[in-house]
Amino acid sequence: VTDGGQTAGRDLVQVLSAALQAGVRAVQLREKTLDTRDLCRLTERLLPSIRAAGARLLINDRADVALALHADGVHLTRRSLPPAEARRLLGPDRLIGVSCHSVADVADAAAGGADFVVFGPVYETPSKLRYGPPVGLDSLRRARALCPLPLLAIGGITADRVAAVMEAGADGVAAISAVLSAADPAAAAGALLSAVAAGRRDH
Amino acid sequence: VTDGGQTAGRDLVQVLSAALQAGVRAVQLREKTLDTRDLCRLTERLLPSIRAAGARLLINDRADVALALHADGVHLTRRSLPPAEARRLLGPDRLIGVSCHSVADVADAAAGGADFVVFGPVYETPSKLRYGPPVGLDSLRRARALCPLPLLAIGGITADRVAAVMEAGADGVAAISAVLSAADPAAAAGALLSAVAAGRRDH
Fold first, then answer.
1. B26 to chain A nearest CA, in Å?
2. pTM for this one?
3. Which residues are paired to A152 by β-bridges?
4. ipTM of the assembly?
């Protein structure tokens, strides 16, 4: 999940390209300070790295940008288009991810036609003021129990916490600063991915 | 053109409904401080008044919201999707308006498949810091000369200035505060519309 303000001054596309080469499967482009035209330009710059990696690109909130630039889908929050409306615009094949912060959110996302859920923040994060207090592992377990969709954990996920969120039922993890702010984004992404692979073997 | 911050505390939908009943033909919903969900809700609240008046509703910048809510089109700026991309998403029937601030902008808008142009600010406005210095009547005349599309003048247009912008070639006018901030928005819209009608008879 991107935030161009967290790359320690490095070019976002270069940082993401390194992470994609390390195996990251999907990028959610989430750049709220960009106007629409600049978001389109950034999407165009990023797409070759996405395609070269066989990964997916989801645009935060903007179904029109996703459609115009042939991205793979959108990521929605409670402040976005309702998932059912986004599905009508995007058609059956593009991906719709939904941010969920509570067990009730997860039920809504599943009913609204989302393809997957990003649940959190599980742990404290530097962005916690924006996303609210951590929901914790117990809440993740309860969300998992009623969520029929793939569920990714987000929020303070470091490689040494991946085992715990996988044990609680996450299918994978999402990260912002853990990758974007890392001195070596490829190594940071690789460590998360290895921990996820290990978690899948164990659960 | 809306700005919910300029209604002197009155409900935007009520102010617009009064203006629509006075004969306003189109509303551009331009509410940059709203998130997408709230923009959708506002659009839903406004649409009955639009339909009752036989008017059109264009959504600023958001082709996805226009499509999801069945609005009549979008309004674009240099910071939005390029007009050709918006046309591809919206299809041939929905309207695409483009804000132009120079003669060069007008040429681009026409080439990009826009349906009409909003040109200005012609005069000084309270919003001038946001839109740049006034372009003036001479620039309006030059834009008119090379613009094959309907062209509306915006920016400081009061009823007593309508004759001058129509004489310079505008097909009509657009307003923000002149209607939204008026003590009697219906009367303010009516005065502009009467002046436009008179200008059409004269030119």
1. 22
2. 0.95
3. A118, A172
4. 0.93
